[in-house]
Amino acid sequence: MDLHSQMILSEYDAQLPLIQRLEQVVLRVLNEALERNGLLVTAVSSRIKTKESLEGKLALKGDKYHSLSDITDILGARIITFYTDDVDRIAAMAEQLFDIDWQNSVDKRRLHDLDSFGYNSLHYICRLPKSLVDEPDCPQMNEMRFELQLRTTLQHAWASINHDIGYKTGVEIPPVYLRQINRLAGILEMADDEFSRIRTEINDYRRRVQQLVQNGKLDDVQLDGDTFRSYLNARPFETLTRRIAAINQAEIQEVSLMPYLPILKVLGCHTLGDVSRLRNKYEEDAYTLARHQLGNTDLDIISSSVGIQNICIVCILAQGGGKIGLTRLFNSLNGENEYNEMLADITFKQAQTLPFMNH
């Protein structure tokens, strides 16, 4: 190795503590910014180029660099996202956080020809601005450049696999295998785009559902996990639950009502309109049942699910489901165990004298 490269390696040894300090700051800044902006990612990582790796780089391109500061990827940070459009969102965030060296930054997503596929990643060469980090005892912190790579999970998988089979062996790959690799790259690129498209359409669907629910057009909304969750946001069973709690002046303990989704489907609900009609039809009988259940007790804490549960109980009994139907209900809610049949028997007896049993 020539003297010039040896001098750069000496710089590396001298500046390694500073590089390590910069790494900690960059990771902290990135994680805080992601959390502040509500951006979920697969991973945030970093690495400092090893001395051995730097030696290899200098052996190949040593005459390209005048000093260590000319090597822009001594410190590298990487953010891996779920979706392609999140790469652009995080890129915008990075542009606000850091001073970007545009001349040395590259968007490798835009370098492919129309009929080519391969490595996709956005590489920014950055510095920490003093407005973000200003440590008077360490002004070099704002002078040293680092690389920030942004890519999706599938792009990262492609880069890792391609590096493993394409570069590690040091053997030129025959054209037939290169063609297969490029075909797979095209499939991954298409999958990335499709995942982003599907997410956008699902978000649009959720917004339409929320609007329909707000406008009361419940018959136009199919009953599923998303729509039921939107429906529950309006707290449709809260009035009944509060009436039941008032029987004993009980405290209400909040629980999720999502476990009732499959039960409502079994009871014949296909739309939110069906759920609303079921609630309206059996609400008073559900309250009457609760009075019989709680009237002679001193129970002072009840679950927020008591309203919808009693509606389901009344519906099952009114439809002739009997103790078997109630056992299935409790098995669905509590998991199968020996107490559900006993609970079903008690509930069935409590309901025997109530008007809806004679409908």
Describe the structure.
The chain has 12 helices and 8 strands. The strands form 2 sheets. Strands 1, 2, 3, 4, 5 and 6 form a 6-stranded mixed β-sheet that branches. It has a two-stranded parallel sheet with strand order 7-8. It is elongated. It starts with a helix and ends in an 8-residue tail after the last helix. The longest helix is centred in the middle third of the chain and has 40 residues, at 175-214. The protein is 56% helix and 10% strand. The chain is of the alpha/beta class and 359 residues long. The chain has 2 domains: 3-152, Beta Polymerase, domain 2 (2-Layer Sandwich); 236-358, no CATH class.
Annotation keywords:
359 residues, Beta Polymerase, domain 2, 56% helix, elongated
What is the topology?
Elements: H1 3-36, E1 43-48, H2 51-61, E2 75-81, H3 84-97, E3 99-100, E4 106-107, E5 122-127, E6 146-152, H4 153-166, H5 175-214, H6 225-233, H7 238-247, E7 251-253, H8 261-266, H9 272-294, E8 301-303, H10 306-318, H11 322-334, H12 338-351
Parallel strand pairs: 2-6, 7-8
Antiparallel strand pairs: 1-2, 3-5, 4-5, 5-6
Helix pairs in contact: 1-2, 1-3, 4-5, 5-6, 7-9, 9-10, 10-11, 11-12
